[in-house]
Design brief:
The complex is a heterotrimer of chains A (144), B (664) and C (329). Chain A is an alpha/beta fold. Chain A has a single domain, classed as Rossmann fold, CATH 3.40.50.960. Helix content of chain A is 38%, strand content 16%. Mean pLDDT of chain A is 89; it is low at 140-144. Chain B is 29% helix and 25% strand. The two termini of chain B are 21 Å apart. Classes of the chains: A alpha/beta (144), B alpha/beta (664), C alpha/beta (329).
Chain lengths: 144, 664, 329
Amino acid sequence: MQVNEFKPKIVAFCCNWCSYAGADLAGNNRLNYPDNVKIIRVPCSCRVNPMFILRAFQRGADGVILCGCHPGDCHYTSGNYYTRRRMALLFSMLEYLGIEKERTRVEWVSAAEGAKFSATMNEFCEQVAALGENKRLEDLRCKQ
Amino acid sequence: MQRIGVFVCWCGSNIAATVDVKAVAEALKSEPGVVFSTDYQYMCSQAGQDLIKEAIKEHKLTGLVICSCSPRMHENTFRKVAADSGINPYMVEIANIREQCSWVHKDKAIGTEKAIILARAAVAKVHLNTPLTPGESEVTKRALVIGGGIAGIQTALDIADAGYKVDIVETKPTIGGKMAQLDKTFPTLDCAACILTPKMVEVAQNENVRIFSYSEVTEVGGFVGNFTVKIKKKARYVKEDVCTGCGLCTEKCPMKKVPNDFNLGMNNKGAIYIPFAQAVPKVATIDPNYCNMLKNGKCGLCAKVCTAGAIDYTQKDEIIEEKYGAIVAATGYNPISLDKFDEFAYNQSKDVITSLEFERLTNAAGPTNGVLLRPSDLKHPKTIVFVQCVGSRCSADASKGKEYCSKICCMYTAKHAMLTRDKYPDTDVYVFYIDVRTPGKNFDEFYRRAVEEYGVHYIKGMVGKVIPEGDKLIVQGSDLLDNKQLKIEADLVVLAAAIEPDKSARNLATMLTASMDTNDFFTEAHPKLRPVESPTAGIFLSGTCQGPKDIPETVSQAGAAASKVIGLLAKDKLKGNPCVAHSDELMCNGCSSCERVCPYKAITYVDKEFRMPDRTTKVRRVAFVNEAVCQGCGACTVACPSGAMDLKGFKSKQIMAEVDAICK
Amino acid sequence: MQTVTRNQLVEKAKELLNNGTVTRVLGIKKGEFSYDLTPAVFTSAEELEKEFEFNGFAAANFSKYLVKLADGEGKILVFLKPCDSYSFNQLLTEHRFNRENVYAVGIECDGFADYKKIEEEFNDGIKSVEFNGEKIEVTTLYDGKKELAFADYMLERCKNCKTKKIAAFDELLTENSDETKNTRFEEVEKLEAMTPDERYAFWRNELSRCIRCNACRDVCPACTCEKCVFNNPDSGVENKAIQNSFEENMFHIIRAFHVAGRCTDCGECSRVCPQHIPLHLLNRKFIKDINSFYGEYQAGAEVGNRAPLVNYTKEDIEPKDAVGRGSEE
C-alpha cells in the first residue's frame, strides 16, 4: 500500500430509519467500505440543510453523500421528496459554480440494502479520490 | 461547560479486535469537556451500566458518550442508565464504533483512528445537547369510526366492548355497507344478512356506541389523543328520534320513480324511503332531489300519513363537533366504473351486469325477490358467462383499470357459479379467468367443488368482446389451454369488476393527513409490522380502505384496529417524542413555508404581540409547533429561510459540530 | 424611457390622498442628482409636489417596503411596476403584510437606466443626467454634453424584461400588457456551456469582489426575514463580513437557495451591487432549473401559489439526473 495515497474525506448523512439501518446492516454482514466515510445520523434526509453540506466542504470534506429512504418509503411519508428537490437544485447550482458534480451525491438506501450501502460508499470514495482534494469549496484557514 | 464521560465498549472482541479501545479512551481524555474516559468489556451489561452510574456520581458528569454498537441497538439502554443516575436521558450520544467501524474495517490502526473521530464527533454534539422532556397530552376517551360497513361495525363493537365510547359516521342512511347487499358469503354459503344484521342491531343497541347515519366528516383538527372532528348530519327531513320505521310513508309516496341505489338502480323506490327492511337506524329518509314537497312545495302526503308526526320538511343540515382520542378509517370500497370497458357492452345491454348486481338479483330482498331473472326481459337465463378480472391486474401503462388484484372476485365468482348451478341445474355456467386465486381457509376446496361437483365450465382466457345480438349476448373469448377461440351465446354476462377505494377516502385522507398509495388505498405505518395503523399517529385503518379484503380478513383487521385504539384510549396521558421542531418566534416571519412541508399539520400560526425596540408593540404572525403532533422529521427546518425553525436533539448547530469534528 | 410621467403619478397620488382612499404614499424622493433617488413616504399634496420624483432611474422595487410600512393608520398607496407586482404577490403569499392596508396602482414600465453603466462610460465628473425621449443626456465636467441611446444603457433586467404584465393592482393607471420575452436565460446558458474550470474561474472572479455589504440582501423583496440566518448566532453560519474566500460563496449560495422558488427575478440584487456582481445569474439558474425540472413556475404570479421547494411530485427528477442537465440541453 502506498503511504501517501490520497484518502478523501467523505461525510455521509444518513436518515435514521432506512439508510442508517442499511449502514448497520452492512456492518452486520461485514461488508467493507473505506474508513474515510463518516456517517452523521439525522432523523430524515429532509433534515439535511444545504448549509450542512457547504459546511462540510468548507471544513475540508472532499465529498458529501446524502442517503435516505427510497422515494415513497419515507418514515415521515414525504421527507425524502423534499430532499430530492432541494438536492437536485443545490447540486445543480454547485455544478454551475464549477464544483465537480462527482463530489456530491444523493442515494436512496433502504434498511435492507446493506450491500448497496457498502457498494455505494466504495464507488463514491473511488470517484472522489479520482478528483483529488477539494480545493474549490474549502476554507483556507482550516488547512493544516 | 459540560462534564462529559466517555465509555468505550469492547463488545467482547466485536469491537476490541479491530479497534484499540484503550487507545480510543485515552485519546478522548484530551478532548475539551471530557473529564472521564474508560473502556469496558460489555458496557451494556449490568456491570457495565453500574460502571457508568458510578462514574456519573463520582465525576459529576453532565453528558455521556458511549462508544459502542449502533444507537438502534442500545441507545435506549444507555438513556435509561442516565435517567437512573439523574442525568437527562437526552444528554447521551452514541458513537457507533461497531456496525460502522469495527465490523467494516480490518486494519486495527485504521479502525482505531476512525473510532476516535466518531467519538470526537459525539463529544462535539453532547457539548450542545440540552435536556429534553417529552411532552405529555391528555387522551380523549372516545373513538371515531368513519364508515359503517362490516369493518366499521366490528371495530366499533370491539372498542365499545372494552368500555370506551365510540361513534360511527356513515354517509348512507343506514349502516351495513356492502355486506348488507350481498346474498351468500363464501366459502360457507351462509347468508350475509343473517350474520350481519344481528351485528347491526347489536351495535345500535350498545350503549357505548352512537351512530351518525346519513352524515359525513367535514373537518378534522387536532392530533393523536385530541382530535376535534366536525360531522355534518345531512337533513333527512324525518325526525330520527320520532320515526318508528313503520314504512307507511314509503308506500304512500306518489313519487315511485326514484332509482333504488340499494338495488344498484335495478328497481325503483319512493322519494321517501327506508333502504331495506333491516336498516339501522330504521327510519325513513327523503331524497330532496325527487320529493315534490321539497322541490315544489306540493304534496306533503308523507306528513299526512305519518301518525308519529316525524316528517319535517324544514330540517336543515346540522354540524356536530366532537372530540376524539383516536380515529379509524373504514371507508370501504366500490366496484369501478365500467364506462371504459366498452368491449363488454356493459352500457349497451341490460343483461351485462356486475357481480354486485348479480348479488342483488339472487338476494331474496332484491328486485326479483331472489329469483334469477335477467334484467331485460325477466326471463331465466339459460347460459351465463362470468368474466373475471374486469379492470383488475391491468398493465401499468393501460389507460384503464387497476394494476392490483381485487382479491375477492375469484371466490365470489365461484360462489355465484356454484349457487346458480345448485338452484338452476339446467343453466350452463362459464367462467373466464386469468388465474384462479384461492389462498384462504377452505377456499380451494370451495372452488374445486364448483368445478367438480357443480360442473361449472372454467375457461382460462380473457373475453375479447361481448356483442348484443337479438336477445342473446355473443361472447367472444379465447381458451388458452386448448388454444382456440370461443364464441358463446349467452343470456347473461356477469363482470367481476375490480374494486377501488371509496371516493370519499381521498378527501378524508387529506383531512386526516393520513397517506395513501397511488391507488388511493390508505398506507399503513409498516406493511408488515404495523398493518392497521396509519403513519399518522392516532389514525387507524380497518377493512378495504387499506387494500382489497374479504369479510373474514376485514373482520380480523377491524378487531386488530380496535385493539390498537383500545391500547391508545387506555392511556391517561400520551408521552411524545421530545426531538421535535421548535420555532423561535422572535425570528419567525410567518411565511408558511414550514407549514406547507409539514406532513402532520403540526404547525399552525398565531398572531402574537411583540415589543419593539422603540417600545411600541407590533402584532406578528408566527409559527407554533404542536409538539404532540410533530414527529420530528425536520422538513420544516430546511424550508425555513430564517433559521427560526430548529429540531430539538438534532439542532443545526449540533449537526454542524459533528460535521466540523469529522472534517477536522 | 418611461411613458408614465412623474406628474401622472403625483396627480393620482394627490387624488387618492384627497378622497381619503389612502393616508400615505410610497414613492421616491428627489436627491441632489437625477440618479440619486431615495424611496420615501409622502403624506400630503405639498410634499408630493415638492419632493416626489419619477425618472429613468426610479427602478426601485417598492414591494419590500410594505413589510415595514403597510401597518399604520389608513391605507398606503404603492405604485406597482410589473416587477414590483410579482414581489407584491409573493410577499402576500408569505403573509408579510396585510393586503387590506395597501392600495396598489399598477403602472406600465418601459425599462430603467443603469447608472453604473453610464458611469463606466465617463471619467469622474458627471454633473447631470437627463432623460429625453430615447436619449440620455449626460453633462460632464470635462467632456461637456453627450448623448447616449437609452436602449444601450438599460438595466440588464430591463433589457431581458421577462414580462410587462402587472400581476396585482387595485386600479391601473395605464394599460396592462401581456408582452413577454424569453431572453433572460441566455447568460445562464452560456455559463452552463462552459467547462467546470471556466465556470469556476468566472465565479471566482465575480464573487471574490464581494465586500459583504449586504446590499443585495437588504434590497431583495424575498429576503424579508426578521433576522437573517447569517445574523443568527444559533444558525452556526453567523458572520457579518467576509473572513475568507469561502464565506462569500456560502453566503451567496445559501442566499440564492433561500430565495429559490420565491425569487421573482426582479433583478434588484444586481442593480444595487456596488461591486457589479451579476447576482441575478445565481437566481436565474435556480429559476431555469425549476422550470426545467418541475415545470414553468413564476413566483408571485398569483397569491397563494405553492413554491416549488415546498412542493413535490412522486415522479420528480433524481438529483443525479438533474445535475448538469442544463448544459446538455
